[in-house]
Amino acid sequence: MDNAGRLYVVFADFRNGKANCMGASPVPPCDDDVFYTFSTDHGATWSAARQITPAGSAQWQPWSVVSPDGSKLYAAYYDSSFGNCEFTGCNDITLATIRNPTSATPSIRHRRVTTSSMPNLTAANNPVQAGFLGDYMWITLDAWGRPNIVWADTRGLNGTVEEDVYFARVGENED
User: Fold this and answer.
1) Separation between Cα atoms, residue 99 and residue 127, nearest integer Å
2) CB 53 within 8 A of CB 96
């Protein structure tokens, strides 16, 4: 909620997904997308959902925060759109900055937060957590209005594939 009482909800949705990605053996590309909606009347009514992510690959598990004045909505999410991740199962973290999110023409800028893709957790490299990234992410604004993001990342030390906590701060000139 921003200082004017406007509410924002950011969520992942498979409405653009392809039939080939349903069931036990999905065949990518799997078009899972991130959307947002807002309410200017304390939740009595909501705007139509607006898509944040580009089409064609899977983006999911978003976390969000809005600037106090409501001029920017930030959404961080897992993203398989880089390199061949859609087909190999690797992932990245992307930050979307939505400027003027309640206007008729919001602008959206995407920024890759991870410096390289996270490897997929498989039974061969991590039998305990195979295929499960966890639901560990958070985003907040610091005192200067910069997004601070933490997430579970599978790029372990010395080339191991394990989950560790990573952190990034995105500077004002970078969003």
Assistant:
1) 42
2) yes
Please state, in angstroms and rounded to a whole number, the distance separating the CA atoms of residues 18 and 30.
6
Global pTM value: 0.91
- pLDDT digit string (tens) for 57-108? 899 999 999 999 999 999 999 999 999 988 888 899 999 999 999 999 999 9
Instruction: Tell me how crowded residue 118 is: count the other CB atoms within 10 A of its CB.
Output: 23
Q: Rg (Cα) of the chain, in Å, rounded? A: 17
Dihedral sign of CA atoms 23, 27, 119, 130 in order: positive
Peptide bond into 29 cis (omega under 30): yes
Percentages (nearest 5) of helix, strand, coil residues in the chain: 5, 40, 50
Cα dist from 89 to 75, 102, 115, 135, whole Å:
21, 34, 17, 16
